[in-house]
Amino acid sequence: MLILLSLLTLGRPDVVESIPDDPTYNVSSELTLEVSASDDNTIIACVVDHDSVKPGEKKNEQSLRVLYAPEVAINPDERMAIEGQRFSLQCSGKGNPE
């Protein structure tokens, strides 16, 4: 899954700083997201949208790592245990970190 974010509409306003003795500017944006376990390993992309560059020419992507508590499941081989016979349970968990 790829999430493409428009920082101009979702975050705080851009911060534009002029560089003394240089005709260029540094522009930075900030975005705050509420994430869940399902967002782990989602690719976040930051893209420059400016007339001076082709669409998608200046882009950086990073995988989002979300820490979350383990989910645990217990699955029996059979639904009912019989006295004197073997009964097996399989316990599995998934979380980050594992």
Q: Which helices and strands occur, and which strands form pairs?
A:
Elements: E1 2-4, H1 7-10, E2 12-18, E3 25-30, E4 43-47, E5 59-63, E6 68-76, E7 89-96
Parallel strand pairs: 1-4
Antiparallel strand pairs: 2-3, 4-5, 6-7
Short description:
Residues 1-18 form the signal peptide. The protein has 98 residues and is mainly beta.
Protein described:
- Keywords: Signal.
- By secondary structure, the chain is mainly beta.
- Helix content is 4%, strand content 44%.
- The protein has one helix spanning 7-10, and strands at residues 2-4, 12-18, 25-30, 43-47, 59-63, 68-76, 89-96.
- A three-stranded mixed beta sheet has the order 1-4-5, with no helix packed on it. Strands 2-3 form a two-stranded antiparallel sheet. The protein has a two-stranded antiparallel sheet with strand order 6-7.
- β2 and β3 form a beta hairpin.
- The longest helix is centred in the N-terminal third of the chain and has 4 residues, at 7-10.
